[in-house]
Amino acid sequence: MAWTHRKDLKLADPVPYKCAFVSSQVNTVEAVLTDSLKTSGPGWLSGPNPDFPQAVVLDMVYLANVVKIQVTPHKTCRPESIEVWSSRAEDRNDKKYKSLGVIVFKETIDRRPPDPKPLFVDTLAKWLWFQVGPPKTYSTNAKQQVGIDEIQVFGYYDKPPTPPPPEDPKDRR
Fold first, then answer.
1. What are 16's strand-pairing partners?
2. What is the pLDDT of residues 67-107, one digit of tens each?
3. Which residues have a Cβ under 8 Å from the Cβ of 104 and sit 6 or more positions away?
4. How many alpha carbons fall within 13 Å on the CB side of residue 107?
5. pLDDT tens, 49-78?
6. What letter would DSSP give residue 172?
7. Cα separation of 168 and 66, whole Å?
8. C-alpha to C-alpha distance for 20 and 24, rounded to whole angstroms
9. For the whole model, what pTM was predicted?
10. Is 44:32 a contact under the CB 8 Å cutoff?
């Protein structure tokens, strides 16, 4: 069978999101609540000596078909693992989350910056909830913090976002 080009096939693109909630954070990284977690920005770092698991919740803004999630942990405050959950609910506090899988971060012998770890999924999600486990043991992490340098979400919107219709001046009366 010959390969054919399909124009209707949707490719996985980066899907924008907003960070909606973190269970704790260092004061210097408050920008995480309004911006995506990027390596060019501060990323996320938990407060000192937190309870585990820590939570990071992402708002996909619109319902998105997510096919891949890629997480780059902090170099010296690396968690042992992160469990990823998703929900289609309108409210992030709705209890209808389902587990997508666990990302496990291995120890690197030379302490080089960690590689991004992918989690391949196929789910519709409005919310992504990351349960961040306790840290790997490093002498430089006496306060038992955990951090994420970057989260990338790949997929596409289930339905393209449409802007609200323009307001008709006649309706203002």
1. none
2. 999 999 988 888 999 999 999 998 888 888 999 999 999 87
3. 80, 81, 117
4. 5
5. 999 999 999 999 889 999 999 999 988 888
6. G
7. 36
8. 12
9. 0.78
10. yes
